[in-house]
Every structure is written in structure tokens, then in C-alpha cells.
Amino acid sequence: MPSTPRNRTVSRLQPFASTIFAEMTALATLHDAVNLGQGFPDTDGPAAMLEVARRAIAEGVNQYPPGPGMPVLRQAIAEDRRIRYGLDSDPDSEVLVTVGATEAISAAILGLVEPGEEVVLIEPYYDSYAASVALAGAVRRTVPLVTAGDGFAVDLDALRGAITAKTKMLIVNSPHNPTGTVFTDHELRAIAELACERDLIVLSDEVYEHLVFDGLTHTPMASLPGMRERTVTVSSAAKTFNVTGWKTGWAIGPRELIDGVRAAKQFMSFVAGAPFQPAVAYALTNEQPWVVELRQSLQGKRDVLGKALTEAGFTVHSGGGTYFLLADIRPLGETDAGDFCRALPERIGVAAVPVDVFADNRDDWKHLVTTFIQSTWQITDDELFGLGSAPVPRGTFRLICLTLIHCPDLGSAFARMSDVIRALPALAPLSIEKGEESTRVSFAVRAREGVAEPDVAERVTTDFVLILLHRFSAWLIGKRVRLRAVEFPYSAPDARLAQDYDYIFGAPVTFGAQRAALEFDNSAMRAPIIQTEETLEEYLRESPIQLMSERDYDSTASAQVRRVLELGVKGRTSTAEEIAEMLSISVPHLRRLLRRDGTSLNQLREEVLRDVAIAGLRRGESVEVLSARLGFSEPSAFRRAFKRWTGDTPSSYR
């Protein structure tokens, strides 16, 4: 009879066998939920930075780089700190490139702390700290943050009391994961004085150094008196430039400390990824304006999510930085964040993370959940793509609906929708103009306002939002919403599409307007919101909008590509690279999805050209006109292609 399998994981690592992030992500996937428990962004970093990485791969930068990191990146890191904080570092001996910040943290603990020595953490803490302390055979001691107003503060007396004769290292994380707290200068100076007094090494995790809000500033621990010689500072490209998968981080400190970090790091990964290092160096030097925009965007998303959670009944702890926002579940009658978060994906289609898993004193934190603001309504072109049926990821749709059903009437809901639109990267805020008999709700594609002809991706974004606003309205008040007019900020691609939109909206449609707009009767704007959380699930099952999970959405790739190809000559002749860019996916991903649909880009292009040609011939267009419009070099080439497509001649379709 077979014996029960034994747990062969070493005892010091058994508590870390799985992570809460994996558990919550699995539940989000199972229930098609919006995953506000994921620790990574929904959008890529600066395009020029990505291009530098692509070019490095193409030019053969694919073998082992120098162990400490490429000189170009170490120099860029040192120069960035000099310019930003006035801190000088020798790029050759005081800067070490690592496989992400997590490796830098682990290597610092393994390389600088002896077994049996103590490491003090401020809780809640990033989960890798505890695992790294265990790997080193060291002893973990914790000091909890305390509530201060609507945020948190360091308990300096408790911190002093936690230091013993065996304490070797103190880990400081500001801006703080997962509370979003930005430690004050007073707190940091008090920590620095304690470290100097007790001769402690400080491991300063500053990966969110650029993501601080509300006019706050980040103070590096190493900049404080007496701290340069005892601080290892850790940072990363992941959170600064939205490239978490590149795993490019670094440690900075005096040579005698960095030597210890390097000694451990070289036997963990040996080197960090080569082609990403010149790209990160480029970004540190050239992409700071992009970082400013990211910070502003995240602050806006924090505000949107914080307002929505407050309206839903949570008490929100508004952090001053990072990706994170904490919410207290006790006003909802809940007391256990773990149970609450495990039920949340199925219950309302949102995943979050309980905070108590990041603490040793778990009872102190069982009432709090953390959410990632990087995921807040960060709707990409990939999600926005589609006309007519307007596919929407189910979890995203559910989350937005939940923010609107508490409004008293449709006019108030549109004001609330304005906050949602503000969180969409591609769109300008809603403009709501109320007249005597009607109300005009309009918006513009942010980057293209005033431009006569938006490109294909911008048209699709515009069309989707118009349809979504119209159908939201009908659902919220429980009856058809009468529109007086609909306006599109581009010329009609063809008569058929214009007729389609007349049918979809049930109102006169105008193309070529300055802004996209819906004009409502004021009686509709006064209509009360009748929906509740109880009616939402039924609507999600029967919604006229095509709702689908993110997994299902990939299966519509061929339909999306076909729509791109249908929307004009440029689309029909677009390369795979251009179409992939329009869809916000990579070319290999595009080709994989099309293969799964049993088709290819060339096949779709041929089908669209055939359909457009037949429609043009039936409208009376000449072969010469169609040949030029469809990009053929001469009419005879068009005739040959038409014969291949249909087995017939153009004259047969006149």
C-alpha cells in the first residue's frame, strides 16, 4: 500500500510554499473577475525603451553580460541618483544590477546577515522579506505600523524596543508595500538615528520611489546623516517603467556592503538579462516625462477607486504612493479579510488581497484588504476593440456598473461615468451640456481632439464608448433611452456602416463632427436608477452588450483584425506589425490567435478585399476606381486578384 507523500520542503521554507497572489489570481480567472489583486500593470512601458530592447536582441546582445551589470546601465543608475537626489555612487563598485528588486533584497540578506542574527521588518511587509530571512537562517522580528488619520505611521517607540543585541539589519520600505504609506522625513530621520546609534545595516526598499502622489516627495534613506555607509538601497525598472517581466533591478551602496550582496547574487542568477539593460539605461536617461505621466495617471486611478470604494461603504486608507489602496471591510459587517477576499470574485467579480497575510501579528490586520490601482479601469485597445456588439470583459463591465447603481438618477450617473472615462487612457473627460429640452454628452479621443480623421484604433475606441454609454443608460433606468442625435468625429467609412448605426442607436447619426456625442431628452436624464446589486448578475447573463471573459476575448481575434481591415484602405494594406500595434498585442501573439481561429492575416486580407470589391462593383464603382482604392498597381492586377477570389470577373457583379 503506497505511503502518504511526505513534505520534503525544508522546514524553514514550508510556510512560504504558495502565495496569496497565486490564489487570488486563480479565483479571478475561475470567475472571470477583474483582478485588482495582481501586482503588475495593464500597459507596457515607453515605446522607445521597448524598441531599444528589440534592437539589442536583433543586434546580438543575447549572451552573458558582465556580472555586476552592463556599464551603460550602472552608469545610468548612478547618474540618475546624482541628478535626482545629489547622491554620488561609483558605478563600478557601488552599483549592482540584479534580476529584479526581489533578488537584490534576497542577496542583501543572504550576503550580509549571519544565521541566528535578527532582521527587523515593519509590518505589513512585502512577502519576500520573510522568506529571504528564513533562507538566511536569520530571525525575523516585526514592528507594526499604526493608524494615523486615514493612513499609517511608524511606531518609533515600538521600533526602538524591537532592537536587541542580536539585531543586524533593519528593512525600511518607503513608499510602503502594501499600505501605500510614504514615510515622513521625521520618521526617516528617527530611523536613521536609531540605525547609527545601534550600528545597524539598513536595507532600504525604494522600488516605488517615483510613484508618490499629492505633491509628496521621496527621501532616500542613504541621503540622511550617517546613512550612506550603512545603507543598501534597492530599486527596479519594473514599477518605474511598467516592465515587471524584465526583472531588472539594482542595489546601490558602499563597496563593503555591495561586495556582500554580489557574493550571494552571483550564485543565485549569475547575471541579469542582457538585452533589457541598455533599454533600462535609455529609459532612465530619456523617459522621465513618461514617468511623470504614469504618476499622474496612477494618482487619478487611486482617486477613482477610492471614491468608488467609499461609496460602496468601505473605509478607505488613502496612501501617498505605490500601486496600493487599502480598504477596511468592517463598515460592511465583515471581519475576516481572508474569507471576504476569497468570496469576492464569485460574489461581485472583483479580486483583492487580504492584508493580514503580510503580517506576523495577523489579527491586527484581518479587517483590511489591498487593491492594485494599476488595474483600475485601465482598459486597453485590446479590450475596447469591436463595433456593433462591442465586446466588454465581464469583470470590467461588472465593476463599472457597481459604481453607478447608487446614483439617484441618470444625470447623476453620467457625472459618475465622467470619473470612469477619466481613467481611460485614450479619452478626454465627458462634457455634459444641459439645455432646456435636451442634454448633450460628448467626449473626444484625447490625443486627437481637433484632428479631422482619427486613425482606426481611435475610431474603434470612440465607437465602443458611444455604444457603451447608450446601453449603460438603458440598463440603469430599466427602459429604452430616447436619443435625439448621435455624432461621430470622423467621416462615414461607407453607407452600410452609417445605416448600421442608425439601427443601433435608433436616432439620426451624423459623421464628421468635432466630438463624439449623444444627445438625450432631459426626461431621460431625470429618470431614476432602478438597478441594484441583486439585479446586476441577471443583467450580466442577459445583457444586450456582448459580455465575455478575458479568455474568451482572445478567440475573437480574427473578427477584430477583420474590422481593422474593413475600416479603410490603410487598414486593408496594413502589415502584421501595424495591426498588432492597433490591437495593443505583439505580432507573435496576433499570429497565434489567428492560427487558433484557423485563419491567417493574408487570408483575412483577401476576404476583406473581396467583400469590399464586390460591394463597390454593386454600387457602380469602376474597376479603375476600385483598383486604385484597394492599392493595386494597375487594373489588370485587380482583375487577376478578383478572379482568384471569386472565380469570376468583375463584370459579373455589376
UniProtKB/TrEMBL annotation:
Domain of life: Eukaryota
Pfam families linked to this entry: Aminotran_1_2 (PF00155), Arabinose_bd (PF12625), HTH_18 (PF12833)
PROSITE patterns, alphabetized: HTH_ARAC_FAMILY_2
Cofactor(s) needed for function: pyridoxal 5'-phosphate
Residue ranges of every copy of the HTH araC/xylS-type domain listed in the record: 559-654
KW Cytoplasm (keyword) present: no
Record carries keyword Amino-acid biosynthesis: no
SUPFAM superfamilies linked: Homeodomain-like, PLP-dependent transferases
Keyword terms: Aminotransferase, Pyridoxal phosphate, Transcription, Transcription regulation, Transferase
Gene Ontology terms, MF aspect: DNA-binding transcription factor activity; kynurenine-oxoglutarate transaminase activity; pyridoxal phosphate binding; sequence-specific DNA binding
Entry's Gene Ontology cellular component terms: cytoplasm
InterPro entries reported for this sequence: Aminotransferase_I/II_large, AraC-type_N, Homeodomain-like_sf, HTH_AraC, Kynurenine-oxoglutarate_AT, PyrdxlP-dep_Trfase, PyrdxlP-dep_Trfase_major, PyrdxlP-dep_Trfase_small
Gene3D superfamilies for this protein: Aspartate Aminotransferase, domain 1, Homeodomain-like, Type I PLP-dependent aspartate aminotransferase-like (Major domain)
Similarity annotation: Belongs to the class-I pyridoxal-phosphate-dependent aminotransferase family.
Record protein name field: HTH araC/xylS-type domain-containing protein
Organism per entry: Didymella rabiei
